[in-house]
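Notes from hallway chat w/ T.B., transcribed later so I don't forget. T.B. wanted the structure written out for a chain they're using in a teaching module, and asked if we could keep both sequence and structure tokens in one place. Agreed to drop them here.
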Amino acid sequence: MKKIKIPTDKEKFYRQVLSLLGSMAPVKHLRPKELEVLSMIMYYNNEYRHLDEDARMVLIFSTQMRKAIREELNQSEDSFNNNVSRLRKLGILSSDSKLHPFFSSILFSRDYEITFKLVSNG
């Protein structure tokens, strides 16, 4: 087994995880701006993990938080809304703005590990 340590911090973590998952669906279908939006949603999902899922998603998708995320990512309102819509189309966000369990389960920690198992198909 080969282990590769990747230095990170709380702000870069989610974008780095998505980059590592970039060759797998549905992440491989995301454009750069959509990846940015998803990484911020995941970041805030972690920041507010002490709230139950419904309250967390209401907070993350509130008008104030959406505006803060847009400003942080330097995206227009239309662009941001299109990116969120695309995340819904791909099943990463549900119609009621809940993060898919796979993505909501990725929470920052100092020793987070991702394991890949490559299996021959022949």
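Follow-up for T.B.: The radius of gyration is 15 Å. Might be a good example for the class.
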